[in-house]
Model the fold of this input.
Amino acid sequence: MVDVSEAHWSTKRWAEAIEARLTEGAAGDPLVNIRRGDTREFDALFLGGGAGGRFGAAYLRAMGGRPLIIDRWPFLGGSCPHHACVPHHVFSDVAAQLMLERTFSGKLWFQDLRGKTVSMLDIVEMFRRGRTGPHAFMNYQSAEQLELEFVLGQPGRLLDARSVAVGEQVYRARNLVLATGARARPLPSIADGIGGVFNYATLVDALNYEPGPTAIVVGSGKTAIEYACFFNATGRKTFVVSRQPPLALLPDAETRRFLIARMEEQGIEFVNPAEVVSCEDDASGRIRGVTLSGSQGPRRIATDFLFLGLGERPNSEEAHAVLGVDLDDDGSVRVDDRMRTSVPGVYAVGDLVGRPMEMFKARKGGTCAARNIMGEDARYQPRDYPDFLHTHYEVCWLGLGEEQARERYSNVVVMKLPPDNPDGHTVALPAGDRVMLYAMMKPELSGFQKLVIDGDSRRILGAFHVGYGAKDGFQYLAPMVRNGLTVDELGEMDELFLNPSYFIQLCRLRAGSRTLRSL
Done:
C-alpha cells in the first residue's frame, strides 16, 4: 500500500498520482489514508466514494463519527467528474455555443461554419486532459479539510454485512453503506466486439478516431438526447433511434413539441418506433452500418459511430449475492426512507437504489444514511424534485404538465411565452440570459416558458423553462411550489432580468384578477 496519511499531498501531487494510475496503469498498491492514532471502531464503511459515499462520509465525520471510504478509483467523486455529469455539461456547453455560431454563421462577428464539421475527437481529448483537476481537488479536500479516511485505487470485496476486503486487508465497521453506482446498459449482443460503439463512459475513455459524417444514437431519454444534440452540433447528421417517443420523461406535450421542433430544425432525425437489429463492421472491426426495423420496414444507415443511450443498470449483483439484499425488478437495491436495505446495518444510496439517477439524490441519500447511523431519525424520498436536461438549450421543469393537471383539476389556467399567434408572427419572447441575439435576429429560437395553475386555489401546479440560466432558480422554486405557492405570492416577488423572473412578471400581470384567465 501507499500510506498517504502523513504525507499531506497538495492538489498537484494528487493530480500526478491520479494521472499515473489512469494513464500508465499503475493500479498496484492502494492509496491509504487511515489515521493510525485513531483506535476507534469505524462507524461505517462506505463502499464507493462517489457523491453518495463522499457526502455521506463527510456528514458522518462532521457528526463526530468515524467513516472509511473504499473505492476502486484512485480518486473520490465517482463517475460524475470522470464519465457522467461533468463531461455531459461540457458537451452541452459545446452544443449551445455551436448552435449559436451555426445560427448566425457568417453574420456579425461569427465565423462561417456552413457545411463545416467540428472535430469531436479534439473536444473529447480536451475533456480528458481537464478532468484530473477536479479529481485531485476532491482527494485533497477530503483528506485535508474534511478529515476523511479512505482506501483508493483497488476494488473492495464484500465479505459480510460488516466487512470489506481490499486485497489481503480486511476492514470492519458497525455499519455498511453501499454506494457502488450503476453502469450503462448495453445493446443486446448484436454489437458485441464491434469497434466504434460507445456509451457515455467509453466515449470519453476510448474514442481514438475522428467519427465520420453520420452519428446514430440509440435511446429516447436524457443521455440519448443530450449526446445526440452534441454530435449534431459538431456538424454530423444525427439519427435518434428509439422504441419510445423521444423525451417522454418531460411531462408537458407543448414543451416537448417545442424542443423536438428545434432539434429537427438543427438537423436531427428521429426514427421511432424503431430498433437496431444488426450491426456491420469493416475489415478493421469498426462499425460501418446498422440495420433498423420499424413501422416503415427495414432501413440501413451507414455510419462509423454508434452511441448507446439506453439508461443504466445498478451495480447490485455482488451485494445481492453476498449479503442477500432485496432488489427491485430493474436490479436496484430496495431501501426504505432511511436508506436501509433488507439486511440490518446495511444501507444503500445513489444510483444503486434506482431512479432518479441524479447527483442530488446521491448526496442527500448519503447524508440521510449517515444521520441514521449516528442515531438520528432522518428520512428522505426523492419525490417532487425539479428536473432538467440539455438539448441545445437548458431545459428545466417541475410539477405537473398541462395534460396531467387537466386530468386532476377542473379549472386549469396556463400562462406562457411566447404567446399563441394565429397569424404566425413570431414574438421575441422570452428574452433573457444568453438568448438576446436569438430574440433580435431569430426570435423563434429565443426559448419557451410555461406555468400551469389551478385557477380555483390559484396554486402553481407546474413550471417549464427552455432557454438558459434557470436551473438555480428551479431549485428554490420547487420547495415553494410543494408548499402551495400561488400566483399572487409569486407575483409579489422581486425579479431580476433572468429567465426565471418571467414567471414573476407573468404572474404579476394576472395576480390582480379575482378570476384567473390563461395568458
About this structure: Residues 447 and 467 are 5 Å apart (CA to CA). The longest helix spans residues 85-103.
